[in-house]
Structure formats: structure tokens, C-alpha cells
Model the fold of this input.
Amino acid sequence: MSYTESFYHIVFRTYRSEKTIPVEHERELYAYIYGIARNIHCQTYRIGGMPDHIHIFVSLPSTLSLASFVQRVKTYSSKWLKTNRDFPDFRGWGHEYAGFSYSFRDKDMVVGYIMRQKEHHKTISFAEEYRAFVEENGIIVDERYFLRDSE
Done:
């Protein structure tokens, strides 16, 4: 028997960072994403965000890559959002995503960070948060592609 546990903090935004996730209906979206994750045997610890982006803290089974997880979540949720009257302005998800691994010891810290998104974004924009998140994890931002969606 193998024992594995992979925790990821994942962030992705709406197309062009448009504010298309109404606060009054965000929990419906989070519940839908939680269901997607559960159906592919993932454990979701927290989902949260703002009208233009979401954060997910999840553990993935060893048989599922981070890229596959994000692709499934974005594809299935996008189809659902585009047919849901509560999200009339949603046009899709942005092309990029950020996802970084954490240890079990970091779980409470990451969950708390996601829980404080509304408070956090009173003083910092999504672009600033995303850039810091990427750079703090040792990745050099390529300005030609940073937060850009093709037409």
C-alpha cells in the first residue's frame, strides 16, 4: 500500500478578470466546484474568492495531476455557469492558473488565507495578490502573458 497526500492552493480568475461572480451567488459556485472535486475523489478544504477570481485548497489523489484537476474544474464549472441565470455575465475562465503544493502543517494557514479574501482585497488588487503569490513561489513573471486572455 502506498501512502500519499498532495495539498494544493489553486488560484484562477474569470476571463479578463471581469467581475462576473456575484457575491450573493458565490456559494452556489463553490458548492458546484466542491461536487466536481468530490466526484473525482479529491478532498476540498476551502473554496473562496472574489467576483473576479477564486481560490481552492484541495488534496488530490496520486492518480490525478494538478493540471487535470484544474482543467476539469474550469471546464465543468464554466459550462454550468454559462447556463445558470444567477451568473448572467460570466463569459469563461482566464487562461492561466496558479497552483502550489503545501504540507499538511500549512493547512490551517492556507484555509485562513482563503477565508479572509474579502478583507484582504480591501487593500490589495487581484493582480497584486496573484503576482505576489507567483513570485513568492519562485516563479519569474513573464509580462508578455501575465493576466492576458486572447480574444
